[in-house]
Amino acid sequence: MTIGPPIEELHFSEEPDVNTVPGPNSERLIERQKQIDSSAVAYPNRVPIALKDAKGATVRDADGNVFLDFFAGIGVLNVGHANPYVLEGVHEQLDRYTHTVDFPTEARLDLIDKLDSIAPGNLSGNSRVIFGGPSGSDAIEGSIKLAKHNTGRHGMLGFEGAYHGTTSGALTLTAAKKYKAGYAPLLPDTVHAPYPAPSNDVGVEEALDAVARKFEDPYGGHETPAGIWVEPIQGEGGVVVPQNGFLKGLRDVADDNDAMLIFDEVQTGIGRTGKWFAADHFGVTPDAITMAKSLGGSGLPIGAMMYHEKFDTWGPGGHVGTFRGNVPAMVGGIRAIEYIEENGLLERAQTLGEQIRDRFDELAEDVTEITDVRGRGLFVGVEFRARGDSGELVEEIQRRCYENGVLVWSAGRGGNVLRMIPPLVITDRQTEVAMNVICEAIRSAVDPQ
């Protein structure tokens, strides 16, 4: 029997319902936030909205405006906001106990088994899972320790355009200088190689040659890396899908140099790309996968790393974190995977993603500012030719979408990529309506006349 409710019943509505935005209550709460919250707060500066509640692929603000959510908390709500099947299990668990460090529980062990069953390649049946801190950055920190511990080396190799988080080790691997300004020095002997894609004029052979030299050139100027950290599809870098052969080439370089290959699937994992993991699109099995975001099912924080059992060389306490026993989040993760399985959401994400990209491809025939449309599943990026301030056009598109009831976000090295990561439970009608709003926002922003 299919696990319910069906996706059509998860939302406030099939269409947005927006009056004047921001409304007075949102303005009041945003102003209050400015007075007492950190100056590091960013999102309300671009989308001035104060949230009241959310269901499925819809959110409602403090003034009662209903938006279609093509943002999903940066890809956290893969099965939608407040999914009843997920929350049922979470609520039941909250009434029992919530925090267990790493003592065994049914939920912890069941989630580990579930992750093993959906793992790519030969990780399935041969994996171990470790829970550290509750974020993607924490998962990356654990992977750094694992690579160093298993290779005896401390150097690291990441990629231009990469985003892996903002804690010390993760920030070292992150490529964007804006996140690093004022925080140097970070971890030593870390290098970044080109990430190949048609949009940045870097080919697979060129990129792999650069990676190989970082390992094999005796005069390379740094220690041989302990591992290669890569997003199989870059997120913040602009939803960049690598050219065929790149990830396979990285697997070969890692094997040839006794290094670990770590896939950062914090944003792409748990069905986002129409496969359980983006690795599945390329037929490449990494040594380790970091995950977080959608792993908790309902938005509860949980970070984890799955890795091949041959690297399980830690002793007791080799990697720890106080909140590595968030049992409600573990229950949420199990139920989210079950909901995706039983409702065919992987296949649905692939179908809807293709429809969305086809719609943008058609628009690009008339809107010459669109230079590339890319992605996998419901992980979609539309790149625009830079105009004035690099991200100015995308910000204008984002504003117009918001004013008409659709929430989208940006990405890319210059902020010139429109990024869409809606919940996998978005309906056909919601997709159609949202695409009408987004396409009209693009047309009107490009030609305001």
Automatic annotation (TrEMBL):
The record's keywords, sorted A to Z, are: Aminotransferase, Plasmid, Pyridoxal phosphate, Transferase
Q: Which CDD domains match?
A: OAT_like
Which cofactors are required for activity?
pyridoxal 5'-phosphate
Q: Which Pfam families match?
A: Aminotran_3
Q: What is this protein called?
A: Aspartate aminotransferase family protein
Name the Gene Ontology molecular function terms of this record: identical protein binding; pyridoxal phosphate binding; transaminase activity
Signal peptide span: none
SUPFAM superfamilies under this entry? PLP-dependent transferases
Name its species. Answer: Natronosalvus rutilus
Family as reported in the entry's similarity comment: Belongs to the class-III pyridoxal-phosphate-dependent aminotransferase family.
